[in-house]
Design a protein that fits this description.
Length: 368
């Protein structure tokens, strides 16, 4: 059996709304001609309560799927337990089957797949929720190819991971294939047993999003998958570096690079990060960049390193300290861990007051 797998269509995404519809439609149409069944792993919509026009577009797109569609909700659609989410509304208008803490079986030509879906839950509860739902609501069917569909972060795949699900935990679950949405970069792990199809539309303007958009086509017989790209607007991520640059240098550099890209890709989406240093006397705010359609700029000119920023803050803070504060801070540094009988701030004030006050203070401390 062939299974088409995609995720994160983000229908209605404001920045590239037309692209979100067009690229989702191409994926559904192409997958319908090549697969026996479609799995969509969440974030079909970009917001919890989409516009009526977006709902209508979604019904048009998924209603024309030529094969059964099974889906879960993502974090963008997640609502309170007793509230209807947009994916459920879409299902009511298309025949799509939405799974949340339950399984469904699809059979064709004597082969069966069993899909267990869990829509997005807060990351810190993901493992507990999955364990509980599997225990209470999942009964594996003998002879079926078993699939788990999720929409969560994975600790090893996100920066500064916290309480997310781990690949080690997922590897121990009783499924032949695990499909995960939410992460927009396409990848496979665990020897091809874990699949992240990525997003079908650009949303984050990161370098990683230069990769083609599309879906995975998985063959349950060979247990292998291939990525099927679909036509989408080109996306280019550029980094331009300048040294002792003027306003004109920066603007001309930008114009040249944008013209080069647009010559071959007139409708391309372009993200440009400009970095480096400006001529003496110029600041970032002095750079007036031209505006271009679908060109997004990150201005890092004259950006300081974290260490430099902290040092600048420290120097500025010290400049505002009184002589007393500076001297007291120095005393605390010098006596840290060495003198514990008296408080450094108190002895400092007594020394400023005079010899007699200091001796009286030390005598009082000694008697304690």
């Amino acid at each position: 059996m062939r299974i088409a797998i995609f995720s994160d269509t983000h229908l209605g995404y404001a920045r590239f709304e037309a692209d979100s519809y067009a690229q989702a439609q191409r994926v559904v149409e192409d997958a319908s001609g090549k697969a026996d069944v479609i799995l969509c792993a969440g974030d079909i919509f970009d917001v919890k309560v989409p516009k009526l026009e977006t709902l209508k577009k979604a019904v048009d797109i998924f209603g024309k799927a030529g094969v059964p569609v099974f889906a879960i909700h993502g974090n963008h659609e997640r609502r309170a337990r007793d509230m209807v989410n947009a994916v459920q509304l879409l299902a009511a208008g298309t025949g799509m089957r939405v799974l949340h803490g339950e399984s469904a079986v699809f059979e064709k030509n004597g082969e069966r797949i069993q899909i267990f879906g869990l829509g997005s839950v807060p990351e810190e509860y993901a493992q507990t929720a999955l364990d509980r739902k599997l225990k209470d609501s999942y009964t594996p069917q003998d002879g079926a190819f078993k699939i788990l569909m999720l929409h969560q972060s994975i600790k090893e795949l996100v920066p500064a991971g916290g309480e997310e699900l781990t690949l080690e935990y997922l590897e121990g679950l009783p499924f032949d294939l695990i499909v995960n949405g939410h992460i927009h970069e396409t990848s496979t792990k665990l020897g091809g047993r874990f699949i992240i199809p990525g997003s079908t539309v650009i949303t984050q303007l990161k370098k990683e999003e230069m990769a083609p958009k599309g879906y995975f086509l998985y063959d349950t017989g060979t247990r292998k998958c291939e990525f099927v790209g679909v036509r989408s607007r080109g996306f280019f991520y550029e980094e331009l570096r300048f040294s002792e640059a003027s306003d004109m240098d920066v603007r001309e550099g930008m114009r040249t690079r944008i013209a080069e890209i647009r010559k071959e890709n007139p409708d391309a989406i372009i993200a440009i990060k400009i970095d480096g240093t400006l001529k003496k006397g110029l600041s970032t705010s002095d750079i007036k960049l031209d505006e271009y359609p679908d060109v997004f700029m990150e201005n890092r000119l004259n950006a300081e390193s974290l260490g430099a920023k902290l040092e600048r803050i420290r120097v500025a803070r010290d400049a505002n300290l009184s002589a007393r504060d500076l001297a007291l801070r120095e005393l605390r540094v010098k006596t840290a861990g060495k003198i514990t009988l008296f408080d450094s701030a108190e002895i400092f004030d007594k020394l400023l007051a005079g010899t007699e006050e200091t001796l009286a203070y030390l005598d009082k401390v000694n008697k304690k």
